[in-house]
Design goal:
It is built from 13 helices and twelve strands. It is an alpha/beta fold. α5 runs parallel beside α6. The longest helix is centred in the C-terminal third of the chain and has 21 residues. The radius of gyration is 20 Å and the shape is globular.
Length: about 375
């Protein structure tokens, strides 16, 4: 039985490759995956349990339960300064990954081009391939804090460009796109009549004084922007699989039609719990941000004590993207060396595109004791 050309074109995840290699070793410390090191807050869990007991076990509207969409609209206006109509400009999706795929399917024709800033989350390549489009990458270098220049993005434009996909704070680099550059990107989007897809799942985890900005909040951008987010990182709800997208009514309407064919709807009880997450106490979010900053500083300090490794504290997200070029190894070789010699799992930078070569990604969302143990093992090895 043959597989389709499209299935064959989907790139394999470099993150999953490390999992497969690590399966052959006992007693590993996994700093590979972006999994929040906290349980879902208890009031959210209870809301989900209550929803199941109350009979929320049926199909929901394709766009999602209206009370959740209303809670999302309130959140977007309060936190992101984006005004949306919950009935026509919002869709609830199976995590942010499905939201990105639906946005690409709704906005981009086969053969058209989507611009990515690289290094980037590897699933973007698969999403673009599934949409039948072509990926055009703009490399961002560590020497510039993994922030590209406007000229690089403009040079990547062609007559086939249809969309620009951005992620701020970034996975894997933790870079936050400065407001000035974000506005320049928006100028290009309006000038060339493009779609800007802004993926914002790490928005609450930033470590400077200024919060990341949502481009859809800028004047004149609402009709050009699809804002993607999820509850996975903010509320430690990765396994609940609830995300959402906000955008122009005609675009969201198309995404709702596509949702019917992709997954029909999102789990009803998980949607109810998500409404509670957005409307209930937010203390846990601030607590997690402070803890991630503490863990990040611990991680970065420890990595900088390892021979041949240099690392800076990221501006956001919960990943340390460490420069390992001083080791004289490729990122894949360095990651495999760490597993063999220390039983510490990190993700090679090459998993995030060619611009990530020479780096390793370490997640500091893991519990503090695991980070300390990983650093102890690495220090012993490098010493």
């Amino acid at each position: 039985m043959r597989i389709s050309e499209k299935a064959a074109q989907i790139p394999a995840s470099g993150i999953r490759k490390m999992f497969q290699i690590a399966a052959h070793y006992p007693d590993v410390v996994n700093l590979c995956i972006g999994e929040p090191g906290f349980p879902t807050p208890s009031h959210i869990v209870e809301a989900g349990c209550r929803a199941l007991r109350d009979g929320f076990t049926k199909y929901t509207p394709n766009a999602g339960l209206l009370p959740l969409r209303e809670a999302i609209a309130e959140k977007l206006e309060r936190d992101n300064h984006i005004r949306t109509d919950p009935e026509t400009e919002l869709i609830v999706t199976t995590g942010s990954g499905e939201a990105i795929l639906l946005a690409l399917l709704a906005a981009v024709n086969p053969g058209e081009e989507v611009i990515l800033i690289e290094p980037c989350w590897p699933n973007y390549y698969g999403h673009i391939t599934l949409a039948g489009a072509r990926t055009v990458t703009v490399p961002a270098r560590g020497e510039n804090g993994f922030i590209p220049e406007t000229e690089q993005i403009e040079q990547a434009l062609s007559s086939k460009t249809r969309a620009i996909l951005i992620n701020s704070p970034s996975n894997p680099t933790g870079a936050v796109i400065p407001g000035k550059l974000l506005r320049q990107i928006c100028d290009l989007v309006r000038k060339h009549d493009l779609v800007l897809i802004s993926d914002e799942p790490y928005e609450k985890f930033y470590y400077g004084q200024t919060a990341p900005e949502s481009p859809a909040s800028f004047e004149g951008m609402k009709d050009f922007c699809i804002t993607i987010n999820s509850l996975s990182k903010t509320y430690a709800m990765t396994g609940w699989r609830v995300g959402y997208a906000a955008g122009p009514a005609h675009m969201i309407s198309s995404m709702v039609k596509l949702q019917e064919s992709v997954s029909s709807c999102v789990n009803a009880a998980a949607q109810t719990a998500s409404a509670e997450a957005l409307k209930g106490p937010q203390d846990s979010v601030l607590f997690m941000r402070k803890e991630y900053q503490k863990r990040g500083e611990l991680m970065v300090d420890g990595l900088n004590r390892c021979h041949g490794i240099q690392c800076r504290m990221p501006d956001g997200a919960f990943y340390a993207f460490a420069d390992i070029r001083g080791l004289g190894l490729s990122s894949q070789e360095a990651a495999e060396l760490l597993i063999r010699k220390t039983r510490v799992i990190a993700t090679p930078g090459s998993a995030f595109g060619p611009a990530g070569e020479g780096y390793l990604r370490f997640s500091f969302a893991s519990p503090e004791e695991e980070i300390r143990e990983a650093l102890r093992r690495m220090h012993d090895f490098f010493r």
